[in-house]
């Protein structure tokens, strides 16, 4: 039975409540209003269960829980609940299949209509399970049969399957068909029996045909061979449909299966909460979508998955933001299906631009009646500071993203692409064979080669704007479920217990700190303070200021790591920059190569750490880099100013005057350079007194190291090549705090 599409859409658009029937949860059945009669019309409880290739006791138990829940939901209804078993290829023990098949044909679930959905080749015991269902739907290119997997199915097992089909649970399957599937030696025929108005089609074996021909009262005609002796007994969906055997209908995907039975596509989407208690996380996405928010959402998703959550609801209320981050979030959400997590987007007000892309990554989308979704086109700022349409290469890339997300979640690709391309017209189409309704572009209709019949154009795609639709039109265009009035109705739609709160996950102190440290002002403060502390450390050489400086830069990179703009490359470049500066100051001073290279490496690492590159929006990388360089420039300018003030006034402050010492022969008031504490000088006469003295190299000088001079260890630098340890050295000069030696 197939409900007319027009009737189905009319019912759905005027729905006020409906039951999604999430199994393993206590949820009261909902209803939707029939506008013709004014009576509440119940929505058919339905659920899909994807069976693994190897069906075991665990899988069978899950199917049992779902079926019993549907049986309870169907009590007192005029129509039956629907259980769809998606069966895949694999090897299963007959014992597990035997128990499950016996349950599916028992009176325990008399009010549940079982449907086997076969999307690929299925044989062996898995195929036997499909024969136990009330109906079978196959992909046209899928195949079903070969119960013995190339050989003869054990007689006891084959007899059990025959006993199942004798119950006539599926009128398109009989003993002869099962015999041909279980024994390659059998010949299976289709005949017409009777005459006049009492002619019927029947599938028989060769022996059954001979008995009928021997019966003088039986009139046999139109004998057609379905399977020759020696051939493997399996049938494709296309051939079975043409022969009117085995299957009820063909379908290309799970969404089409839902439409064949007049059900919303969400009802036949796998529900990880089926068969158990739902574990829900509620994540709110609000404001402009940028790297810091994207990383925060990613952390929330990871935390939820780690806690064993099987349903994540995203409340999306955003005008959009960076397309790169929006794309990454959308695909991260879309991939949660493979991790056994059901995802739902709830839009109370608007989901535009990047927010619309994120919504399309969810399994289901629910909009408030006054909410809007769409307008996902990329823009750039032109020469006159006006928003302009992005180049075609960017638009083409975005269309591909939207089409992929729509295909992954069973939505019309044309509608999704029209959100980014204002020149793209969308047409309503009907399948030439099944009458299924869908939405396509002109190019898609042409490529379908007559499979779809073009109907009227969608009026909202005619407008000279990117496709933006309200809640009801979004449902009509098959990108969203029927509208929900509030969170309470959303909870009912999802089958959640009434007492289950839907509260957004709060930021932890860690998330708050990351948000604060990733602001431009905090970035400038950390970088500027880090440089100032290094400068002061060179004045006092206490070690504490150096540690505090390292802490500032560590906080900077840590925040940028969690903010999603930095990685280990930036840290390595920063470390290389520090190493080059150290070489310039302490090892080979005077040339400037290492100093300039170190400064450029540090600057480059800081700029790279403050943003992500490769964004979809044209010019966004350059604009963001200009902003970041401006803040870093302001921090550097502030540092230079503070350094000048420090050099001018620090020596005259009594507290600091006692902590520093001018070089030999200079008055403290006349020197504005870094000076050492007296306790750090060697000997009573300062470093200048060492000139001309000799000693022994305590370590190998490469070219720096330590030397023992008149009983004191002194940091020295060779004025030539390497000097081995224990070699005799002579002090030939002192430059500031550097003692220069050569081998005696």
Specify Rg, calculated over alpha carbons.
38 Å
- What are the segments in which pLDDT stays under 50 over at least 5 consecutive residues? 1-42, 381-387, 661-685
Q: What global shape is seen?
A: elongated
Measured by DSSP, the beta-strand proportion falls in: 15-25%
How would you characterize the largest beta sheet?
5 strands, parallel
Count of strand segments: 30
- Arithmetic mean of pLDDT: 78
Biggest sheet strand order reads 3-4-5-7-13
Secondary-structure content class: alpha/beta
Amino-to-carboxy terminus distance: 105 Å
Number of helices: 24
User: What fraction, in percent, of the residue positions are helical?
Assistant: 25-40%
Task: Note the quaternary state here.
Answer: single chain
Topology:
Layout: H1 5-13, E1 31-33, E2 40-42, E3 46-50, H2 57-73, E4 81-86, H3 94-104, E5 112-118, E6 122-123, H4 124-131, E7 135-138, E8 143-145, H5 155-166, H6 175-182, E9 188-193, E10 200-205, H7 206-214, E11 220-227, E12 234-236, H8 237-243, E13 249-250, H9 254-260, E14 280-286, H10 291-306, E15 311-317, H11 323-334, E16 342-347, E17 350-352, H12 354-360, E18 364-367, E19 372-374, E20 379-381, E21 387-389, H13 392-408, H14 413-418, E22 427-431, E23 437-440, H15 442-447, E24 452-457, E25 468-470, H16 471-476, H17 487-493, H18 509-517, H19 520-540, H20 544-563, H21 568-587, H22 593-609, H23 620-649, H24 654-657, E26 694-697, E27 704-709, E28 712-718, E29 728-735, E30 738-743
Parallel strand pairs: 3-4, 4-5, 5-7, 6-8, 7-13, 14-15, 15-16, 16-18, 17-19, 28-30
Antiparallel strand pairs: 1-2, 8-12, 9-10, 9-11, 19-25, 20-21, 22-23, 22-24, 26-27, 26-29, 27-28, 29-30
Helix pairs in contact: 2-3, 3-4, 5-6, 10-11, 11-12, 18-20, 19-20, 19-23, 21-22
């Amino acid at each position: 039975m197939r409900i007319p599409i027009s009737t189905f859409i009319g019912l759905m658009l005027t729905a006020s409540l409906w039951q999604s029937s999430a199994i393993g949860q206590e949820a009261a059945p909902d209803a939707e209003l029939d506008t013709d009669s004014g009576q509440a019309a119940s929505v058919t409880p339905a659920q899909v269960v994807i069976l693994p290739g190897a069906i075991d006791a665990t899988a069978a138990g899950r199917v049992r829980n779902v079926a019993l829940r549907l049986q309870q939901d169907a009590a007192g209804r005029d129509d039956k609940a629907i259980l769809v078993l998606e069966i895949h290829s694999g090897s299963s023990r007959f014992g597990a299949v035997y128990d499950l098949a016996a349950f599916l044909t028992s009176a325990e679930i008399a009010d549940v209509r079982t449907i086997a959905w076969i999307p690929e080749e299925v044989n062996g015991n898995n195929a036997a399970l499909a024969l136990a269902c009330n109906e079978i739907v196959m992909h046209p290119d899928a195949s079903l049969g070969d119960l013995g997997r190339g050989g003869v199915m054990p007689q006891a097992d084959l007899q059990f399957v025959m006993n199942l089909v004798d119950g006539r649970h599926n009128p398109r399957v009989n003993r002869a068909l099962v015999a041909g599937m279980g024994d390659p030696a059998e010949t299976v025929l289709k005949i017409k029996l009777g005459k006049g108005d009492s002619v019927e089609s029947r599938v028989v074996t060769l022996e059954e045909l001979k008995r009928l021909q021997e019966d003088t009262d039986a009139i046999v005609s139109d004998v057609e061979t379905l399977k020759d002796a020696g051939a493997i007994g399996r049938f494709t969906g296309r051939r079975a449909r043409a022969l009117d055997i085995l299957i009820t209908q063909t379908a290309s995907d799970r969404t089409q299966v839902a439409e064949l039975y007049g059900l919303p596509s969400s009802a036949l989407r796998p529900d990880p909460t089926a068969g158990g208690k739902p574990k829900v996380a509620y994540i709110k996405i609000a404001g402009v979508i940028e790297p810091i928010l994207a990383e925060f959402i990613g952390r929330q998703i990871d935390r939820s998955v780690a806690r064993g959550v099987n349903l994540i609801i995203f409340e999306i209320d955003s005008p959009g933001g960076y397309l790169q981050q929006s794309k990454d979030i959308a695909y991260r959400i879309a991939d949660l299906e493979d991790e056994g997590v059901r995802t739902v987007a709830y839009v109370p007000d608007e989901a535009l631009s990047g927010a619309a892309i994120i919504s399309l990554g969810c399994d289901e989308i629910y909009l408030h009646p006054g909410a809007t979704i769409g307008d996902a086109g990329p823009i750039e700022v032109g020469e006159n500071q006006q928003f302009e349409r992005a180049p075609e290469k960017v638009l083409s890339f975005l269309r591909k993203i939207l089409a992929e997300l729509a295909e992954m979640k069973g939505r019309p690709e044309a509608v999704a692409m029209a959100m980014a391309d204002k020149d793209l017209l969308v047409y309503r189409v009907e399948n030439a064979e099944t009458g299924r309704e869908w939405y396509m572009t002109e190019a898609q209709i042409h490529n379908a080669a007559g499979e779809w019949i073009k109907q009227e154009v969608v009026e909202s795609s005619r407008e000279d704007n990117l496709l933006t639709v309200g809640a009801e039109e979004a449902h009509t265009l098959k990108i969203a479920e029927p509208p929900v009035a509030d969170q309470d109705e959303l909870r009912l739609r999802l089958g959640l217990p009434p007492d289950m709160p839907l509260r957004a996950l709060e930021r932890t102190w860690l998330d708050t700190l990351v948000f604060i440290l990733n602001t431009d002002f905090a970035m400038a403060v950390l970088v500027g303070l880090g440089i100032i502390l290094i400068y002061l450390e060179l004045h006092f050489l206490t070690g504490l200021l150096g540690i505090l400086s390292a802490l500032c830069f560590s906080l900077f990179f840590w925040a940028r790591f969690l903010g999603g703009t930095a990685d280990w490359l930036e840290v390595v470049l920063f470390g290389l920059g520090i190493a080059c500066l150290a070489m310039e100051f302490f090892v080979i001073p005077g040339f400037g190569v290492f100093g300039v290279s170190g400064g450029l490496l540090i600057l480059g690492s800081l700029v790279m750490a403050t943003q992500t590159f490769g964004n979809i929006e044209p010019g966004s990388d350059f604009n963001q880099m200009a902003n970041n360089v401006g803040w870093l420039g302001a921090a550097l300018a502030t540092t230079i100013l503070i350094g000048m003030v420090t050099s001018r006034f620090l020596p005259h402050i009594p507290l600091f005057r006692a902590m520093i010492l001018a070089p030999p022969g200079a008055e403290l008031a006349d020197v504005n350079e870094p000076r050492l504490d007296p306790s750090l000088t060697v000997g009573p006469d300062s470093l200048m007194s060492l000139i001309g003295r000799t000693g022994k190299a305590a370590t190998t000088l490469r070219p720096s190291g330590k030397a023992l001079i008149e009983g004191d260890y002194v940091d020295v630098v060779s004025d030539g090549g390497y000097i081995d340890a224990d070699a005799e050295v002579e002090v030939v000069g002192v430059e500031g705090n550097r003692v220069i030696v050569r081998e005696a």
